[in-house]
């Protein structure tokens, strides 16, 4: 390609964020790119990707690469143009006051550096043991590696990236001094130091301090304070070794006291030491810090790509409160969504990274932009991919880049960068990430698939420098396999990939954890939350499109880009980023730890912070580590009075029940008394004189005893009280706030505060897998909850009676955990609301503050089926109802087909909103008839389940079908983790269901009859639960009568079991009277004489054929709009799409109609047609 051609390959409006670049070189080794552009920094050694790009004159340089490879040419004008274009989106190093900087904390982690590079003032000269002083080493005895805390963030007002080295942070733990030698603590401390250095090495212990403290576990009125040794180590390896020694019966030998046995419990080391440091400095995840007295790291010693790289000590850093200017998300915070496409070369199976190339990488950069300074959306972006919409109140700017292997046609609103070599493309993507410098990497299952795939490819292609797209150089990103077992997700395989300085924010894992959906494919998730679909190209089709032309590769590129765009949309729509930031702020935990460490660390962080304030020490408790919890009696569920209530039912709900119980009854580790309570504890001194036992101690309904707040205020009640107060404040501010971004922040905060307050109870009950379990606390909380529900029922029915001048005797029809449902016997919604408010105030006054019973809503009408199963029309205002509220019904359950869910939903709307029982019954009867007559769309009958890795003890339908699909086509069979879609087909009598599970597409293509009885039973069980409480006679008529006497059986089945149908050959019938005809003609001898009937039949067939063609064209056009082109064939295989099976079915109906009727009529008499 000539220089002129190279220059001409760049197309599009550069200033408008669009462009197209071709890069045609094939690198002989990964570092070749630096040979072409020696003046361009590609992020291999320093922080900035761009210097001054210089070209050798006006003519582009051509350089032939050595080492074979066909001698391809590298047209650097193309890549230089791309780099120049990309420059405008990179972060710029704007001047900052290094005297005082305010930084938004993105991530905190640690790294080890050589002791020779460590600042000398930190390592003071060793001068013998002195309690409370640093014990360090002479230069000759320095430990090889020392830790540095790395704080990554952006400046609060300018969005400049910062890497902050904090040098004087060392891991530590505490161990209790044995009581018998507390009087000789300095002497024992010296012995302890000598023993540790003898066993771990002289360069292990940095500092030993003697301090006073109190364990958080239990209340002892006679001995509050104890002596502890705080052991600070030069690195985590030394600390972990010391911890292991202490936990295994650590003993000292003293000439004064003989054998000194230490407790096996260690303290204050339950979290990573970086989080421990944040707690000590009052820094929270995604909070703001003020740094003073920093030193900028010299260019020759820089190890990060951030705009500023600074060094300081801990005392230079102050954590700032989350309020005012420090509570917003800073301008310039950057997300980068990515998605890859790959093809399977030489086989039809799913691509594997060891042998199959990456062909495209989409990258969408989204940056927080204040609402009062928001850039107007690019019209092309908004049209092509649903870009930022000012009217919608978006707060983000976007840049879209697509990397393609081989050429690609231009895409509106996007930068297209094409490569001839996969290694070049990977390096180009790496350089782009480093230029754009995102704070957060995101995608949909991108950690386990996309990112991991690229990393494996880079290793196979001998391209190790690809792995340098973190913020630290020259660290290499590594992949670790792990198995995670959680209650929400069960056992599943996971990849651990740490990209230094950048948060890995995989929204697939978050949505799986927080939402119950039928399918977690990106298509289904977007359909559910965004109400939009996307084209789903099967991986077997990718190879055909890739080896086509510019336009076919553009189709892949649009598809790939949309995946990344949808991820950004989901993040905005569900406020996923805002919510995780607020959770980090509320709990104090960095986002990366929140995403990888589960629920326990949230409460542990809050507990450690409160312990620090009140000088308590938190022990590390050994647990079994499995996820099976010790069972104890849970909440009360009152026996429901089943029935259909056509009068208002008031719902009274305890506000934050379990947190309120903890506060009201002072339930905490620090207030727990021994069981049984020693006699010497029964009277104590509270400071102002003696307090009698009943005033200082309370025994819970579970038989556990705690001291009251008159003696000691518990830590857990204090934590929960602060969280609830903060939530109340956030909700009050939310009502007044008008700024869209701040509203999202406040809503995310109140949600995080609610979740955090409610999770404290679960934290105490996690006996086998928790960090600080305490069964007496969790047992007592649920016991109080049970008595309160029963007391509430008693009080409602005792006070609201005709005898007390109320309209009727109130009856509690149901109660569950924290709410009761009351029938006050009134027919007016407004009157029921007044009575509900009166009852809530009356009963709240009988409980200890802050326990509060609140009126929540009215159900009118209300359908109560059994425990945990009910539905009702919700009213929160007397003028108009809100919505239908269901619990435990198949409309909100994932293990039922769409037919059951849709019919229940439609029936409930008619029953509860229109209140027309007859109309609801007719709807059911019509749908039953349609099912029997094969008029139900296949998508409504599909069931799906995820294919797990473990061996199943019993045969399951989806597992057996997966085996069957592997036999038919091993390359396209579902893999572990995939969802298996199936329908239940007809079979012989008593044939197991797992043998009758079949692929829906296979069923459609082969005319296999479904098992109508199976689906009828599913409908019957669900619908009868709704109709029987309303009208038993009507319920019996739903599945009996004339509408169930007809059944259409599909012919020509080809399932595993054929029965007599296997011996039937295809015959022809008269198109008029349906008499069997042996010669294949259209009409029998009798009907062939009736020209009027023949004309009528021809007209009917014509009309039916044209109707089917019209339906198919509508569906086809709808699919083309989804794929954003009205000129391409539809190849989408999205089985979560509601029209997928309908499109296949109608196309097959057209073909059958043409074969059975049209072709016969045309063959017999073309003029008839």
Automatic annotation (TrEMBL):
Location relative to the cell: Nucleus
Main localization, broad class: nucleus
Top-level taxon in the UniProt lineage: Eukaryota
Keyword vocabulary terms for this entry: 4Fe-4S, DNA replication, DNA-binding, DNA-directed DNA polymerase, Exonuclease, Hydrolase, Iron, Iron-sulfur, Metal-binding, Nuclease, Nucleotidyltransferase, Nucleus, Transferase, Zinc, Zinc-finger
Annotated GO biological process: DNA-templated DNA replication
Pfam families (UniProt xref): DNA_pol_B (PF00136), DNA_pol_B_exo1 (PF03104), zf-C4pol (PF14260)
InterPro entries: DNA-dir_DNA_pol_B (IPR006172), DNA-dir_DNA_pol_B_CS (IPR017964), DNA-dir_DNA_pol_B_exonuc (IPR006133), DNA-dir_DNA_pol_B_multi_dom (IPR006134), DNA/RNA_pol_sf (IPR043502), DNA_pol_B_thumb (IPR042087), DNA_pol_palm_dom_sf (IPR023211), DNA_pol_type-B (IPR050240)
Family indicated by similarity: Belongs to the DNA polymerase type-B family.
Record protein name field: DNA polymerase
Originating organism: Gregarina niphandrodes
